[in-house]
Structures are given as structure tokens and as C-alpha cells.
Design a protein that fits this description.
globular, Beta Polymerase, domain 2, 134 residues, alpha+beta, 6 strands, 5 helices
Length: 134
């Protein structure tokens, strides 16, 4: 599976993270593992302000698409880990130290890892709206 075949909402989150210079962006496909969500988007920021900028950018771009966040954990001003739960996917924005400590990629090593291209434009609102309708 390529990132281009992912849901527009998840592609938007990847592009928003990249727009704020998130590092080591990874998307894990958890669908075959019977997990509580379909995908993890995992990325790192170098400082608390960058972690805040990344998580805020993801929320802002997904809000523009009408995607509702179920919950947010972690205060991005002081936290080493911010979690954004969108139901079908969960975003984890870590400091480098917290990412190494929690090591979600190792914990979920059976998940398929989706390659992320160097550039990924933000998707238009129309495809995302169509994708969310039953």
C-alpha cells in the first residue's frame, strides 16, 4: 500500500506534519492486527514549540476538511507526546526522547509500514467529504 491510496484525511495529516518539519514520519497499517484503530501516524518534533506546531497544524488542516477529533491527550506546550485520536487513525507526535522510550514502532512491529514520499500536497476538501459519507 502506498500513502497515495490512504484516506484523504490521513494523507492530509501527513502533509500537515511535514509542513511543520516533523521528523521521521511513519504510518503503520494496523488493520490486519485487530487493533482499536486502522492506522498510526507517528512523527517527532525537536522541541515543545515544534511539537505544538505539528499537532496544531494537523488539527487545523483536518478541521478544514470537517474531520472531527475524538480526543486529544497531552499538552503540546509541555508534553513530550501529544496524541490526536480521529477514530480510524491516531496521530502520535513525540519528542525524540519519548519516541525512543515508548517505541511504538517496535511494539507494533507486525504492522505494515507505509512509505512516505518526500512531498505530499494537502488534499482538496471535496474528496475527503466524499470519503466520509456512507
Amino acid at each position: 500500500m502506498s500513502v497515495h491510496s490512504l484516506r484523504p484525511e490521513l494523507r492530509c495529516a501527513v502533509a500537515a506534519a511535514r509542513s511543520k518539519k516533523a521528523e521521521n514520519i511513519a504510518v503503520l497499517d494496523l488493520r490486519k492486527l485487530g487493533a482499536f484503530t486502522d492506522f498510526f501516524l507517528i512523527c517527532s518534533g525537536l522541541s515543545h514549540p515544534q511539537i505544538q506546531a505539528i499537532s496544531d497544524a494537523i488539527e487545523e488542516q483536518l478541521d478544514k476538511l470537517g474531520v472531527v477529533r475524538a480526543r486529544r491527550e497531552g499538552n503540546s506546550r509541555t508534553a513530550d507526546w501529544v496524541l490526536l485520536d480521529y477514530g480510524s487513525f491516531v496521530v502520535h507526535v513525540f519528542s525524540a526522547r519519548a519516541r525512543l522510550f515508548y517505541d511504538l514502532e517496535r511494539l507494533w512491529r507486525a504492522a505494515a509500514r507505509i512509505a512516505i514520499p518526500d512531498s505530499l500536497p494537502l488534499p482538496a476538501a471535496e474528496p475527503a467529504e466524499a470519503a466520509r459519507k456512507p
